[in-house]
Amino acid sequence: MSDTQPISNPPKRLGQRVREALLGYAFLAPALIAMAAFAYYPLTQLVSLSLHRETRFGTNSVWVGPKQLIDTLTGEDFREGVLHSGLFMVYTVPLGLVLGVLLAVSAHRKLRGIRVYQMIFSSTVATSVAVAAVIFITLVNPVVGYFKDVAWLSLNDPDTALFSVSLSSVWQNLGLTFIVILASLQAIPEELNEAATLDGFSAPRRFFRITVPLISPALMFLAVVLVVQALQAYAQIELLTNGGPGSSTETLLFKIADPRGIRSVGVKASMSIGLFALTAIVAAMQFGLLSKRVHYGD
What does 16-30 look like in DSSP terms, one character per residue? Predict the structure, then answer.
């Protein structure tokens, strides 16, 4: 009885490999062109602007090298913006994730009319930042608002204004968090929870030992997205407080947008580079720390 040798695929010829590579680059070309036009080119322009300083009358710019960039990124104004953006992130991301998970778990039931509640909980995903800000300022208006007497929701107090603004973002982002978590919960096989129930697992134990590991990819995705959105908060701050009282709600992006016109183009470009670097570092840290705790099902 003779041994049979496995049939191996013949090696591809050089011409075929070149054609396949060119075809792959052809499919990638539209995305690469879009990234170059709308991401890489503006980034190079920001670097160029940060290395130049406008003349007194704004009619020309002179080369100043990295001094302006270094002075801006080490200055008090930039540090204040980073602090406010960091506080805004701390106020919005954990609270938004917890509320989204709780709503998704409560709505993940086979009950009559549950679709109505799911629609209500997810409705904020279609709400713009401007609409959410207007609704919120109506609720906390010091004259006619429903919560006008709640001191810790005051937009006129420097100690509470940033937290009050963050609540509008939590509410506005709740729909996205709810939809992503609910979709992840619906993808979990019911047999796993049934088997855990038969093994004597209580509801909290089933949630933390089975549900959380299985929805961990969605949690990591939402954590990254919400952190990036928090670092880019601007519209709700401009509508609700316009950076006030004083400068207590001026996040880094608000300082870059500079609606009051108190910063030069070079300074704002330098701050933009700092925000880009800060966002990249925070996202990389999240991937590095959370990816080890994420469970991907087979």
Answer: HHHHHHHHHHHHHHH
